[in-house]
């Protein structure tokens, strides 16, 4: 994970800010060599969040959990969760779910998330 984190920070900083990792570390006051050290050790989450906010990418992207660098709003995360759940559903006989059933299932999933 650490190598992925370092590389994603390096590439994103260059692309979005035209900065190297040393400059990012100095700008964020986390130390000029701090990000280099993350190749071998895991940083604290607050430092990863600080870098992700600065670069305007998600922490999941920096950590290699997704290839999508976009920062999602809570509503977008909810929609993504609902859509992922719907994509995994098949009808009882193994066929595609009808559009009517899909709407019903979407309502059930959203009600479940509202109660959570």
Automatic annotation (TrEMBL):
<feature type="domain" description="HTH cro/C1-type">
    <location>
        <begin position="40"/>
        <end position="62"/>
    </location>
</feature>
<dbReference type="InterPro" id="IPR001387">
    <property type="entry name" value="Cro/C1-type_HTH"/>
</dbReference>
<dbReference type="InterPro" id="IPR010982">
    <property type="entry name" value="Lambda_DNA-bd_dom_sf"/>
</dbReference>
<dbReference type="Pfam" id="PF01381">
    <property type="entry name" value="HTH_3"/>
</dbReference>
<protein>
    <recommendedName>
        <fullName>HTH cro/C1-type domain-containing protein</fullName>
    </recommendedName>
</protein>
């Amino acid at each position: 994970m650490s190598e992925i984190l370092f590389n994603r920070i390096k590439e994103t900083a260059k692309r979005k800010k035209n900065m190297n990792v040393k400059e990012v570390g100095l700008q964020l006051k986390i130390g000029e060599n701090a990000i280099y050290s993350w190749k071998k050790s895991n940083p604290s989450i607050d430092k990863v969040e600080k870098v992700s906010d600065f670069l305007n990418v998600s922490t999941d992207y920096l950590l290699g959990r997704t290839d999508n660098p976009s920062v999602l709003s809570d509503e977008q995360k909810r929609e993504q969760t609902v859509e992922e759940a719907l994509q995994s559903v098949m009808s009882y006989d193994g066929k595609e779910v009808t559009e009517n059933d899909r709407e019903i299932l979407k309502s059930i999933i959203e009600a479940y998330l509202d109660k959570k």
